[in-house]
Amino acid sequence: MFDLVELEAELARTIFAGKLHFSPVTDSTNTDAMAAARRGAPHGSVWLADQQLAGRGRGGHRWLSAPGEGLYVSVLLRPRFPAARLPLLPLVAGLAAAQAMLSVSGLAIDLRWPNDLLIGPRKTGGILIESGNNSKGLPHAVAGIGINVHQRTFEPGLATPATSLDLESGTRISRQKLLVTLLKSLEREATAIEQQDAAAAVPRRVENASTWIRGRSVEVHGPQECTGVTAGLDEHGFLRVETATGIVTVQTGGIRAKG
């Protein structure tokens, strides 16, 4: 279990101070966060659970959330930057998560566009960004982050084999330390893209942190289904794929290794 008193102390000088909402069990932290956002919850509010009964990932996929084994957290952000930068949010959330995971486990994390956290070929985390407006028309975004920490067994037949930080590091990773490190990293990244120069640097930073963004033969799943070789990100963070008929700029969907 999390030590909530210690968490509040560690987050005292962050945007999350006094805004932590913990549930031992919930359907989905993202659902909780989105509902609270519509009611006017403030920027930096955090929803954390020990178990999710209906955790979900991008594209409606189910995210298994066994009790006490992973990190299941959603953060409410009220963007202080132009709407055109919203597509950068999953990218900066990925950078923040990768930095936090490396910091607490020593493991290098690969970023698979747009929202998967991998160790080698195995998935250890994912990000779900949802956005909307409250009753006054003010925009909000929720960054949901799920990370496998203590899991040792996984469902068979997953599209991407899964793993956990404990399995890969050979040691027991503290979920509490990971959470604090993640939130502080996310604050830095989300605040930075309020500045144009920092926002403009995000696509190149993700390219440097990922083996998937350039020169990878992939299949694109979703409304822009195609196959080809990845050719970097554009200024919005969208994936460019060189196909047999030319460059396709993929705005939504997911990718898998071809073949």
What would the principal axes of the Cα set say about the shape? Answer: globular
Radius of gyration: 18 Å
Under CATH, the homologous superfamily of the largest domain reads Bira Bifunctional Protein, Domain 2
Major sheet characteristics: 7 strands, mixed
* Spatial order of the strands forming the largest sheet: 1-2-3-7-6-5-4
CATH topology of the largest domain: BirA Bifunctional Protein, domain 2
E-strand count? 12
Report the total helices.
6
How many individual domains? 2
SSE class: alpha+beta
What is the CATH top level name of the largest domain? Alpha Beta
Which runs of at least 5 residues are low in confidence (pLDDT < 50)? none
Q: Which architecture of the largest domain would the CATH scheme give at its second level? A: 2-Layer Sandwich
Order of helices and strands: HEHEEHEEEEHHHEEEEE
pLDDT averaged residue by residue: 92
Helicity, in percent? 25-40%
Strand percentage, roughly? Answer: 25-35%
Note the gap between the termini: 42 Å
